[in-house]
Amino acid sequence: MTEGGVRQLRLVVEAEDFEAALAFYRDVLGMPQQEAYSGDDGAEVVILDAGRATLELSNPAQVRFIDRVEAEGQPSDRLRVALEVGDAVTVTARLVDAGAELIAEARETPWRSMNSRLRGPAALQLTLFEELD
């Protein structure tokens, strides 16, 4: 990496119900808290560890293909957060029990992963994926 290169990808999400979103992503999904800061007028931010970060760029044809495979053609939001988990079926059920909206049940994809799609707190569209190889 060059001196001026990217060192970290941080997705910043405004959560109207901050406490509910924090409980969901930290406590239910299991993303460890790294840092937390408070400011004036009730300002709060918590930084959660999401493991390794990547930026996946897809053209519209690829997005349509993923949507067909992963969610019966239901369109992705412009930004969708994909999280690798150890057991997509179990974690999907746990997140639905915690209030996530199920968009598509976990299913095996042509690229050998088990993927599900949900809508979590802070209106984030989520793909959970488990690598099968």
Automatic annotation (TrEMBL):
<dbReference type="Pfam" id="PF18029">
    <property type="entry name" value="Glyoxalase_6"/>
</dbReference>
<feature type="domain" description="VOC">
    <location>
        <begin position="7"/>
        <end position="131"/>
    </location>
</feature>
<dbReference type="InterPro" id="IPR029068">
    <property type="entry name" value="Glyas_Bleomycin-R_OHBP_Dase"/>
</dbReference>
<protein>
    <recommendedName>
        <fullName>VOC domain-containing protein</fullName>
    </recommendedName>
</protein>
<dbReference type="InterPro" id="IPR041581">
    <property type="entry name" value="Glyoxalase_6"/>
</dbReference>
<dbReference type="InterPro" id="IPR037523">
    <property type="entry name" value="VOC_core"/>
</dbReference>
